[in-house]
Amino acid sequence: MNALAICGSSRRDGNTEALLRRALAVLKAGGLETTLIHLADHRVEPCTACGICGQHQDKTCSVTHDDFQEIFEIMLEADVILVGSPVYFGSATPQTMALLDRAGYVSRANGHLFTRKLGGPVVVARRAGQNFTLAQLLYWFLINDMIVPGSTYWNVAFGRMPGEVESDGEGIETVEHFAENLVWLAQSLSK
Q1: CA atoms within 13 A of residue 170's CA, in its CB half-sphere
Q2: pLDDT at 57
Q3: Vertex 46, ends 144 and 128: CA angle to 5°?
């Protein structure tokens, strides 16, 4: 089985990436192959609401001048998908939502391609807005018929400057336990 983490931060080596790397280390230790994609390295345009993805049903989006299709194909191959975002004014980053909106539309237009994949959101906040962002991302997983395990708290950690998230012991523990639950679930389902 393989796991994909998508980092929606505009910063490389920031807190969101650090938190996702913690989760990926647990998944890798549990026997999953892991991949991390940084949206900071890619250009994904927002959905144009053209509806073409529902007409031709070939698992593609009509917007072809960006990196969406490449990332979408990797998402389709993954058994586990994690999406991490910092909080931007009480919301996930625009590039995160551009990817998720388009991936959700193409998936649903082609027979719900994410059905029963495992995964969930990971959120980093400076001070507030984390619950709104966590819910925003969680709604995407749920409407795409995915399986999201719980943890000992919500998958949220705090930090502003790069590296600060490492001092949020409870946040790190929560995300690592979430990843442990993903490993347990993946192993249980593969039996």
Answers
A1: 5
A2: 73
A3: 75
8 Å CB contact between 130 and 160 = no
Between CA 129 and CA 160 the distance in angstroms is: 13
The fourth-level CATH superfamily of domain 2-189 is Flavodoxin domain (3.40.50.360)
- The domain segmentation of the chain, as residue ranges, is 2-189
- Classify burial at 66, counting beta carbons within 10 Å of its beta carbon; exposed 0-12, middle 13-18, buried 19 or more: middle
In order of 138, 159, 170, 179, the CA distances from 126 in angstroms are 20, 5, 15, 22
pTM of the predicted model as reported, rounded to 2 decimal places: 0.97
CB 78 within 8 A of CB 2: yes
Q: How far is CA 144 from CA 64, 127, 172, 186, in A?
A: 23, 29, 27, 18
Instruction: For the chain, report the end-to-end CA distance as a whole number of angstroms.
Output: 12
pLDDT level of residue 58 (50, 70, 90 thresholds): confident
